[in-house]
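About this split. The held-out portion is used to measure sequence recovery: a designer receives only the structure tokens and must propose an amino acid at every position. Recovery is the fraction of positions where the proposal matches the reference. Here is one held-out target exactly as it appears in the evaluation file.
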């Protein structure tokens, strides 16, 4: 076997992950979807469980648009017109009419001057931070920011990096004041919705703080927000945490097309000059194929649905199902973090019990995600449930009933 020593080295590391219980494990493979029927939402079939129906409580498709007939038709129509792939990176010949139309719609949706779409929200954040940070930049980040922000900071080469405790605005302000005179500009980064917990950043207050000290830095304080879990699922009209908090002053907003919009890809919206600069300098944009024209076509339709009476109904139903599930957990004495966002965490705070509960749910037809160390800190072990607009009251009550059975079995 070639590279025997190297393969053995990797095997030892995998064995250590398995020993500590931190492996991701085998991936669940969806082999069939049964569409919504009467009072029940979609049911999923998995490889190895071909005759068992599952309620999916671990999907990011918060509005249920991935199965929407209009979305499927839009993607098929665009594929017929433009083919199934872009065939090149965008600056060569990989930009198609749906890409341009989608960027204009997203910029207008967020009230920004311009937009640039990417192959994913993860690469969007990597490219934005690493491209905009300079040797005279200090980056300040919330300690529970998403992994894409953590790796973006590793990739960037700023003058300094600072981390403030989760949602600790006094700590943030202190770090900003300590940076005065130490750099030309600051980049402050936070998630809108924190994906492991479903809580949200007080973006309105963060904007006030950055405005307060902006003139202390020769090249300003730039506030970047990743609201991938918020856009489309949070706020009165689905415009995310910015809308929910009434924030004014977010300079750069990163979002995704792969969660509430039900498709694939990421994007960034900002002032026209910022987007122009990123198109010229961001290697993750320049050297990577864009999403397909058909994905762009479906995303355009998702925006049109969201900005319609149907979209408002979906959001209202989503909020209703989220509240129903959250209240059910509280009534049974489970610990959660109250929020209007459809991420509803069940804080188990024990690795073994988290594993038992995830297995119990699967055995009883519910798919949910267990989050153990190192994904979350020790003592914060959690089951992350994600409510969708295609869940029904019947579905929510079924899941609550199974949780009650587990609680009773555990004594």
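Reference sequence for scoring:
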């Amino acid at each position: 076997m070639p590279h025997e020593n190297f393969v053995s080295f990797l095997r030892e590391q995998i064995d250590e992950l398995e020993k500590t219980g931190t492996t991701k494990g085998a991936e669940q493979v969806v082999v069939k979807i049964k569409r919504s029927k009467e009072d029940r939402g979609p049911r999923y079939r998995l490889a190895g469980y071909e005759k068992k129906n599952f309620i999916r409580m671990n999907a990011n498709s918060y509005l249920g648009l991935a199965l929407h007939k209009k979305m499927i038709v839009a993607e098929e129509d665009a594929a017929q017109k433009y083919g199934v792939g872009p065939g090149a990176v965008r600056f060569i010949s990989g930009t198609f009419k749906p890409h341009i139309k989608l960027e204009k719609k997203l910029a207008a949706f967020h009230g920004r001057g311009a937009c640039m779409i990417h192959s994913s929200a993860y690469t969007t954040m990597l490219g934005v931070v690493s491209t905009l940070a300079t040797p005279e930049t200090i980056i300040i980040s919330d300690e529970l920011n998403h992994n894409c922000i953590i790796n973006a900071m590793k990739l960037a080469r700023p003058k300094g990096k600072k981390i403030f405790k989760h949602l600790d605005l006094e700590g943030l302000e202190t770090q900003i004041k300590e940076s005065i005179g130490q750099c030309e500009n600051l980049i402050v980064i936070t998630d809108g919705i924190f994906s492991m917990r479903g809580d949200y950043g007080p973006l309105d207050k963060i904007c006030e703080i950055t405005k307060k000290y902006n003139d202390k830095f020769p090249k300003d304080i730039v506030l970047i927000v990743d609201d991938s879990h918020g856009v489309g699922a949070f706020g009165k009209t689905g415009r995310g945490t910015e809308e929910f908090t009434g924030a004014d002053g977010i300079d750069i907003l990163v979002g995704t097309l792969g969660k509430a919009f039900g498709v694939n890809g990421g994007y960034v919206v900002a002032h026209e000059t910022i987007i122009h600069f990123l198109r010229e300098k961001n290697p993750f944009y320049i050297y990577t194929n864009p999403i397909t024209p058909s994905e762009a076509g479906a995303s355009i339709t998702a925006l049109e649905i969201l900005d319609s009476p149907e979209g408002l109904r979906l959001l209202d139903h989503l909020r209703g199902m989220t509240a129903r599930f959250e209240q059910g957990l509280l009534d049974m004495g489970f610990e959660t973090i109250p929020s209007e966002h459809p991420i509803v965490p069940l804080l188990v705070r024990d690795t073994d019990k988290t594993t038992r509960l995830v297995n119990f749910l699967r055995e009883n037809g519910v798919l949910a995600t267990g989050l153990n160390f190192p994904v979350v800190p020790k003592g914060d072990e959690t089951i992350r449930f994600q409510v969708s607009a295609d869940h029904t009251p019947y579905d929510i009550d079924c899941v609550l009933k199974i949780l009650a059975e587990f609680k009773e079995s555990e004594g």
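Annotator remark: The chain has a mean pLDDT of 95.
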